[in-house]
Amino acid sequence: MNTLDAIAARRSIRRFKSDPLDRATIERLLDAAIQAPSGKNRQPWRFVVLTEDARTHLAELIEQSCEAIRDQGGNVGSAPATAAIIRQAPATVVFFGLPIPEEWKGFEGARMIDVQGISAAIQNVCLAAVDLDLGSLWIADIFYAHDAVVEWLGRPEEDLVAALSIGHPDESPDARPRRSVDESTDWMATID
């Protein structure tokens, strides 16, 4: 599949078949992740692959955190539905970023530079999944359980960025509406 076709075919999958993913397939996806560009070629990404009971535990941490937030009158949005998707998908990868290096301390954009690279790595996995007839769901709702996840996975020095559930899709959603290039772009050629 060519890249432009993979980009056009990529969807956020919210229903997965129960078919497991083998380690070699997951490693192939992560190999696509590490091909992403990163600021100063820092390659700040770190991955934790959750399968079987581990992914169920992640879903439980999100559900418990949502319950505590609701008890305090807070809104948890789609997080409970996301927890159900994590339970269903055969694998979920949690993406962390390395601590900011000493020479970057005090530079306000340092974390953003790393997050951009990690986001590129996540997108590479999403596109590679399409190429392998798999589906994925980029998960930001993991932040509802940020502290619990970081503690459970023993990564207090690293930045939790996102999670990505992966598996064989059990749905074929239509493309969602997108703003046109004209609506999203300003062009400049000269400076006043």
- Spatially, the strands of the biggest sheet line up as 1-2-4-3
Characterize the largest beta sheet: strand count, sense, and whether it forms a barrel. 4 strands, antiparallel
CATH architecture: 3-Layer(aba) Sandwich
| CATH homologous group name | NADH Oxidase
User: Judging from the principal axes of the Cα atoms, what is the shape?
Assistant: globular
CATH structural fold name: NADH Oxidase
Q: Quaternary status of these chains?
A: single chain
Average pLDDT works out at 96
Q: How many structurally independent domains? A: 1
Count up the helices: 7
- Name the poorly predicted regions: none
Which class do the helix and strand fractions yield?
Answer: alpha+beta
In short:
It contains seven helices and four strands. By secondary structure, the chain is of the alpha+beta class. It has a four-stranded antiparallel β-sheet with strand order 1-2-4-3, sandwiched between helices.
Write up what this structure looks like.
This protein has 192 residues and is an alpha+beta fold. It has a single domain, classed as NADH Oxidase (3-Layer(aba) Sandwich), CATH 3.40.109. The chain has helices at residues 3-9, 23-33, 52-71, 79-88, 110-131, 146-153, 181-184; strands at 45-51, 91-97, 135-139, 159-167. Helix 2 (23-33) packs across helix 5 and helix 3 (52-71) runs antiparallel to helix 4.
